[in-house]
From TrEMBL:
Entries under SMART domains matching the protein: HTH_ASNC
Signal sequence range: none
Residue ranges occupied by any HTH asnC-type domain in the UniProt entry: 18-79
Protein name, as recorded: Transcriptional regulator, AsnC family
Organism listed in the record: Geodermatophilus siccatus
A GO molecular-function descriptor: sequence-specific DNA binding
Source lineage: Bacteria, Bacillati, Actinomycetota, Actinomycetes, Geodermatophilales
Amino acid sequence: MTGHGVAGPVRLSDVPVLDATDARLLQALAEDPRATVMALSQRLGLARNTVQARLARLESGGALAPFDHRVRPEALGYRLGAYMTVQVVQRSLADVGEALADIPEVLEVTALSGVADLLVRVVAIDADDLWRITDRVLAIPGVQRTDTALALRRLVDHRMGPLLSRAAGQDPAAQD
């Protein structure tokens, strides 16, 4: 955790690769997030200690996202979502990332290759609130330019089910 109360940067190469048992465990958790370790061990036919150790390894290794990812911003009154691309003075990238983490309405920041340096997912109460947030981003030293696109509708919600099925060896399309 950083000093901002959010998870630190995730290096994609550091996240552990899951085996089929890990994938089955995560599938079971996705289907019943409140399942106890004992219930998971019975469902999967694994020892309780094995399930507990695997869950601990998955969590500490970064394979499991924090619980707050399940909370929808709309439930908190943030009905307007947007994606900002941000161009940054190259040597300021880390400082800009830290400053963005200080803005509560910034949900996620991803470094990109290409013309834009950062993709920033933000939420706002309304258009005036988005204007305020944009001004705050533009005031960060090192930010050169922003472009904002409103999120109109989510057509495919965040999902891992199809990939977990494939990793667990249960994807018929993967066996073609």
